[in-house]
Each structure stands twice: as structure tokens, then as C-alpha cells.
Fold these 4 entries.
Entry 1:
Amino acid sequence: FEVPKFDAPKFEAPKFDAPKFEAPKFDVPKFEAPKSSGGGYDLDIPKFEAPKAPKVSMPSVPSFGSGSSTSVIDEDIEPQELRDQRAREARQVFLDADKEAKAIEAQARAVRNIANDKKKIANEKKDDACKTRWGGKILCLRPFGVGY
């Protein structure tokens, strides 16, 4: 199998002389760092100390063994029955207020539903009035002060 020979035509680009450009010469100033005895650099690095962790102590474990029974109950605390009665009364006051609030919320929902129904009727009437105006129901161009 032989590859056919291909001779590309000779092409000479026109000669072009670019103007000579010389970059300005400048000298970089010399810099020498002071040498230390250790061969490295002697830099003053600020010292940083992390804050110390707070000391935590474990609470003492109470003993549940039989022996002298030390009472932790304070003697100035009111009787349990009196505290229960106060909690019961406070709960009843809350339940009465909650029932009253729910009744008012139900009235508000009913009034809101009536207002929404009237809004639907008003929009239907406006659409009916806008049928013959420029732009129809969608754009409804109308003069100022018409009221809808």
C-alpha cells in the first residue's frame, strides 16, 4: 500500500518590519533582613493564651439508704391541698376565658364569610358594568370618580 504524494504550493508571507521597542530599565532596591544568631529571623510574635476552662464539680449523690431521714421540704411551704386548689381555680379562669375567645372568633368567622360573599357580588356587578367599557372586564378603563 502506497501513500499518494502531496505537494503543497509554496507560500511566502510578505515581509513586515515591526518597530523596535525597548523596555525601560530599572533597578530594584536591595533589601536585607537582620540576621539572628539562630539562623532564622527574630520576629516579635505576640503571645496568646487560651482562656482557662471553667472548673466543673459533680453534685453530690444523695443517699437512699435507711438511717436518719433528712427532710428537704421547707417548713414555710403551704399545704399541698391549698396549692392544688389555687391551680384548679387558675385553670378554671383560663378555660372560661378560652371559651369566651372561641365564641368571639366564631362570630368573627361568620362576619368574615358574609363580607366575602358581598365582595363576590360586588366583583360580579363590576364585571357586568365593565362589559361595555374600553378593555372589557379585564382592563375596564373608566373615568375617575365612577366609584367602582
Entry 2:
Amino acid sequence: AADNLKVGMTLTFVYDYNFIITVIMAHLDLMKHFNSTIRERFGDPILPIENPHANLSTMEVITRECGANAVNAMIASQDLILNHRVNAIAGDFYFGSCESAGGLAAANQVPHIAMCVGDTLGDRVRYPYTFRNGA
């Protein structure tokens, strides 16, 4: 449905497993708010959300591997935005990939959560839709 929350993730080969496991665990914790069977089996949410929006119950995570390559990150981000109509993009750990994804996100007005560091990404003119999550 058009109301579903879709999050696209660009992944590097090195960090795939940790990143995917983190997303699965966060998604499971989120689903505890909507599915009593999951809540009974795994316990209360670790991160409780007061009155979560119903669209969160149908969140879909779509991943694309980009191999720490800026061109591949742009191709992956373009696929997620244009073909899968994601509401946001998260990733990657490499700066060049973050810049590529951030530029494409800005051009398409899609929020981008960058998992890398770099002063350039703080430029609100060039990357108005990028939010940094890196240390």
C-alpha cells in the first residue's frame, strides 16, 4: 500500500552482517508495539514508543549492496528511490558512498541517514536531506 513506510539501506560488504542484524533487531523491537504474539515471546520493547503511528507496523526494509564504491552507492540509491519508492535511505559507512547517496537524496527530496563522518555532509546547502549518524 502507498501508506507503508519503506526504508532503503545501502550496505558495504564488510559491514553487511552487523548492519543487517541491527536492523532486524530494531524492527523486531518495533513490531512488539503492534503484535502481541511477538511481545509475549520476546518481552516488552527495549525502546518503548508512545502511541506509534500505525504505518510503522508495516515497515519494509529494502537493502542494496554497494561495496564501498561511490558509483555503486549512487546506483543503489537511485534504484531504492525510483524503483522501490522508499521514504528514506540509510547507509553507508564509507564517505564517498555517503556523498553520492546524499546528493541523490537531496535531488529527490528523500531523507538520508549517513552512517559515516565527514565535514562536507554537514553542508545544509549541498546535503539538505542528509542527517549524520556517524561518530
Entry 3:
Amino acid sequence: GIQAPIGYFDPVGYSTKVSDEGMLWFRAAELKHSRVAMLAFVGWCMNGAGYHFPGYLSEAEGVTFESLSKLAPKEAWEAMPTSGKAQIVFSIFIAEVVSEMYKPHYTQAGDDFDPIGGLKRYKTPEAMLKAQNTELANGRLAMIG
């Protein structure tokens, strides 16, 4: 994409090798992954700061949210029961299936795709473009890690 301060950035040359429809798919995938990365970053920070849910993550295995919050984020992931990891993967799968069911498909919907009505707050096309570019830039930064 074209964004300040770098400008046009396509080091692999996708824009010359892929159709316009393919580029829409790549942009949609980039947005989806960047949103996940931004949420993961916030979760990482919350865990690192010691915030946690009350109660048990797994009563059967004696794992509490508090016990995981005392660990570094990578150690907390390793200490999570396998069933908890499976639930996370299953939730992601369901979210993917549901997002693919929207009609028109998000790669074909253009700038008006707004299934939950969040775009109404942007009164001008310029404000909308600024918000979209901000989300894209923050998402790219979050994906870097």
C-alpha cells in the first residue's frame, strides 16, 4: 500500500503479479491479520501488567487466570491447558467461517462494508480515509511485533 512515510511499498512485486481481485483479497487478509495482531498486542500488555480474569481457567487442572498472569506472556501460553488452546483455535475458526458468510463478500464490498455500523461516525470521506490509513499503519506495526 501507499502510506507515509515510506510511500509505495511492494518489495515482492505482488501488484504486478496478481489480479485486482487478488490484491483485494491480500488487502482484506492484511486487515484481518493486523486486527488480530493489535488485539494480541493489547492482550500481551494486559497480561504483562498483571491484569487477569477472576477464577479458574481450568478447574480440573488447577490453573487459575491469576496463576497465568504471574508468568511472562510466552510462559503463560505454555502453561495454558491444551483444551484452552483448542478453544482459542476453534473460536478463530468460527470467526473465519462467519466472516466468509457475509454477502457481499468483504473483498467485493468496497468501502461501504459495515456489518456492525461503526462507519457512521465518520462524517466525511477524508475522515474515513484517515481512519482507515491509521488502522492500517497501526496494524502493520502490530504485525511486526
Entry 4:
Amino acid sequence: VYTSKPTGDNNNSVKLNATKSDDKIAEQVFLEINKAEPLKLIDMPGVSTAADRKFITEAVTALQSQFPEMFSPSQRCRTPNVNVDNLRNSIFGAGILKRHKGEMTSSKELLNWLLVQNAAIGQKYENNQKLQKSISPKTWKKASKHGFYLGLESSWLFL
């Protein structure tokens, strides 16, 4: 809480005095606000169904279990890494479940589809030196070492 005191001159200005505890509270509020992560579209109430959220979350969690080295806690991770929340949101936003309605009736089927897409991207890059050169050698080395390629590009989201 800030207190105000007249400065004593005739221009009616006010001097604000803050206590150390006020500064600490302000610092905590500032840090809390800056740590906040934006709400993803998939998690917004009324945007996705509970069933879609469940399928996508379970499939991405299973994918993370298979490729833990390729998942980053940072929402601004570097290629070829992916972030769980960003991946969930991308899958939802691309409408994969809607486009493949009937084919994907469980998270296991979505996971299998993701693994097929992953293998296809890996093969595409493996067989094309020009594509490999379009990414850094370090990125290609990590992706090929772990066999995880979904983080190299996003074209697979729209197949």
C-alpha cells in the first residue's frame, strides 16, 4: 500500500512512500504475473470437448513417455524439441480429430497416427539431403538419434 503526503510546495504534487513490505508484495505480484502461461485453445472452456481433450492429452503423454528427451518444459523450445501443451494445442487447432473422425476413436489410435507421421517425416528427411541441410546439423543429429521428427516441421498436422 502506498501512502501519499503533500510535498509542501505550492504545486500540489504528492510524494508516494512505499514500505519495504509493500515492495516485496509488489515484487511477488509482478513475478506471479510474469510466470503465468497463456491458456491454450484446447483448454478453454467450451472450445473443445472433454473427450477430444482426453484423447489428445493421453496420446501426447504416451508420446512423451516414448521420447522423453525430445520434450521440453519450455513453451519456446528449440527445434527438434516439442512442448506438451504446444503439441496438444497444435493437434487440436489443426483439427486432426475432426478430419480423421471415425478413424480415431481412442487416444491409442491417435498415438498410432502420430507415430506413423513421425516415421514418415523421418524417412522424408533421411532420404533427402537438401531437407537435412535446411536444418542445423545439431538438430538433425538429435532428431535422428532419438527417432523423433515431429518437431522438425508442422506439415504433418494438416495431413
